[in-house]
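Late entry, evening session. Most of the bench is empty. Finally got around to the prediction I had been postponing all week. Sequence below, unchanged from the version circulated by S.P.
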Amino acid sequence: MKFLNLSLAALLGLALAACNSNSTPETAKAPGAAPATAATSTPPGPATGKKRLLFFGNSLTAGYGVEPEQAFAGLIGQKIDSLQLPYEVINAGLSGETTAGGRSRVGWILKQPVDVFVLELGGNDGLRGLPLSATRENLQGIIDTVRRRSPGAQIVLAGMQIPPNMGQAYAKDFKALYQEMATKNHLVLIPFLLEGVGGDRTLNQADGIHPTPAGHRIVARTVWAVLQPLLR
């Protein structure tokens, strides 16, 4: 297994492009949250002959506040390594990313085809109270791009929930959006990425948003339960 983080310079450049298209970091509505930063490492190298599992998301995927190997994507990579499964894991998480920003950079990310694409975006849209119609349209645009660039890829959608700061109706509709998108597009759904972690102060950093290493271990188990059947 080869675990890769996409290059800092490239992702920061894309983050700036996303900001120019009205993408705003999650700090806009979430005091204490991470500034827009990318996971650091080297760009993907030559083809290894292994299948490619790509995590595409925001600071939760990027592992804000923890070491790369402590974040859930890194833990999944370690699990794949221990089982000697023929996959390389790529972390394309970018802190502060919205669905609009993700839509603007997904084509660049998919210059090489992938076999499994885990889509974890929307949380920052919800924290900012963005129109669900825009979130829905952007997620659909990302899904369409994946299917165009990697027709055989299995897409996994990570569901998210938000506190009722923007109103109970908005929070309810936000949660339902993920099931709607999964059903419409025949995606594999992780019902709630932060199941057992969200809202638990002991499993989150001081900002109350980003999991601690212990929290990431729980998230990794949630994700693995969905991924394992696909990877085998």
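Two things to note before I forget:
The chain is about 45% helix and 15% strand.
Strands lie at 3-5, 51-57, 87-93, 116-120, 154-158, 188-190.
Will write this up properly tomorrow.
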